[in-house]
Every structure is written in C-alpha cells, then in structure tokens.
Predict the 3D structure of the following.
Amino acid sequence: MLVDDSVPVRQRVRSLIEESCQAELVAEASSVAEALVFFHARRPDAVVLDLQLSDGDGCDVLSVIKRIHPDCVVIVLTAFSAMEDRIRCFELGADFFYDKTMEFERVPEVLNRLTAARTACDAKPQVHP
C-alpha cells in the first residue's frame, strides 16, 4: 500500500514499483483516514508511508499498523527526515526510513528483497511425517 498526499509522488513511487518490483500495489491513500480504511480492508504486507498527510500525521497510521499487524513492513518515505522524525518512526516500529528527496530508489530495492524472501519461504519443501 502507498500512502502519500502528493499525487506526483504517488505516481513516481507507483511507477518505480510497477517497473522494477515483483510486488503488487493493492491500495493508494492520501490521508490518515483513507490509509486506515484501506489498511483494514486490504491488510497489505508492506506500506510505503509519508509522514505529512492531508489530514494529519503519518505516525498515527504507523502506530495503528504496527499495533494491529506488527509483521507488516513499513517503509517511511518522507521529506521530513530530521533525526527526531527518524527516531520517532523507529520507536513506533518503522522498518525503514528514507528521505524522499534522495532515496526514492531504495523503495523498490526493499520491496524486491521482501518479495524474494517471501518467495523463498513459500518454496520450501514441506516435510510430512
């Protein structure tokens, strides 16, 4: 799932995911309210999350996600990359924190690693007694 209030940013991240990832984008949201509705409905394995949303703070979304589904991987991608923001996000359970002004390309790298790891786990032979 992709959560960012900027349409151009969502378009850019969506393009990166579609062009270079095995991951499937299941929902996009621009607000805290939308993000929470889509999260509850879709239960994505990973969320790319901005901190400044049209109706509030992305950290509110982060804390709900990690409380409900702690295994969901949250990639914070934000222009607000001060050390305080970074610390706060990691304290709330963020798995990755990237500065969107310089680190867009990190998102597909992370998603590809997650997809590869999941595929490897799914491909393990089952042992029957």
Observations:
- Helices lie at 7-20, 32-42, 58-68, 83-92, 106-122.
